[in-house]
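User: two proteins, same treatment. go.

Assistant:
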Amino acid sequence: MESNSKAGKHGLEGDVDLQFLLEGGELMKIKSSWKNNRFYKLQDDCETIWHESHRIFKRKQTFSIDEIDSVRKGRQSEGLQKHTEAHVEDRCFSIIFKGRRRTLDLVAASVEEARQWVNGLEKLTSNRRKLNRQQTSEHWIFNCMRKADKNKDNMMNLKELKHFLRQINIEVDETYAKMLFAKCDTSNSGTLEGAEIKQFYDLLTHREEIDVIYRKYASTGGQMSVKDLLNFLLNEQRESATLEDAVRLIEKYELDDSAKQINHMTKDGFLMYLQQEEGSIFNPAHKEVFQDMSQPINHYFISSSHNTYLMEDQLKGPSSTEAYIK
């Protein structure tokens, strides 16, 4: 079955929580002014949640697993604390989204169903983060394209492309965008599709500085040997690294099996490493919280702008402590 192959890609084939999500079920959606039952279901792609809607023009709606930041058990959100009773604590959970999308507050029919929803969603989001760089990039691009593709023909004209650029937060000169569009439209169809969209994105986001640093240290046949990588770790990253550390990084992040077999790191593997926490310039010694975090929130000084508590626009949008939490 298609859903089984997709589950296998996530490393979750046969998982009972994933099967539960694929079958779907009713959840009570909690809003400030109403509470209504809605049917939610993981689609067969194992990457999209479908749910029914009572809006006239949006009877069926979806959101991607990639849009989920976290899943909270219990009545942790402001909405659930205000609009549900304490006795349903173990049946409640909240889906927190990335960006400014509002938190989805839900109540399951039973404690066991709430547990399965939370476990299943956490497994999916966790596995999504583990995808290699190419898969993550392509999947994210696909999701942005899906939102920008207004007529749902899986192709993008120049007008839709501009919306796509706004989705991925890229400001670009219109003349330059048109030039790249023409360059990538190898079929001369007036639209971009499939690999052409990926090529457009790659050209737009090319990182010359990464090429420079890789060429500087890749002194072994155009690739980084384990010794080249160690040289980079010692001289650029200023880490107290060993040859064993460099071998471990190649084993963990290199995408090309033939390069991995000879302890080499290609540029794709190098990019994969740089995009992860281990490649961050942030000193991990500073990561631990040493202050007392057990006091009520009003005992602390919150350093923020006056807009931090706003959920939408600053003129008429709602405000909430959820914005601080995010």
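Protein 2:
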Amino acid sequence: MEILRVYPVAPLAVPHAVSKEIIFKGYRIPEGTTVLVNLYSVLRDPSTFKDPDVFRPERYLDADGHLTKPEEYIPFSIGRRVCLGESVARMELFLFIASLVQKFEFLPVDGDLLPERKGIIGITYFPVPFLIRAVRR
């Protein structure tokens, strides 16, 4: 969950068209306007996610260790336009990462120098190029 929050694959939701004129937070949006939802900004909102730039997988566990999911956690969008492949993507991501971590230890190439954590935002969100060493366990 935290990987998808900090590094969403698709930082912008699918474009939508406004079906009738609306006023949203004081702004008039005319009928037919194309709207893009910035999922990246929702997932990095400090009013919802304390320390949004810090990678903390435990943020989704309550005091009893049960998984919690804030309403604002929407890496696959929300509502009728939610990504149809969400369940497959979650399963594939889990299997892919689990199999890599079981078989390899990932280390920086140059001492303790870790790759830059910021990525490049476009239609998709991807990391800046970096090198790592994958050492067989």
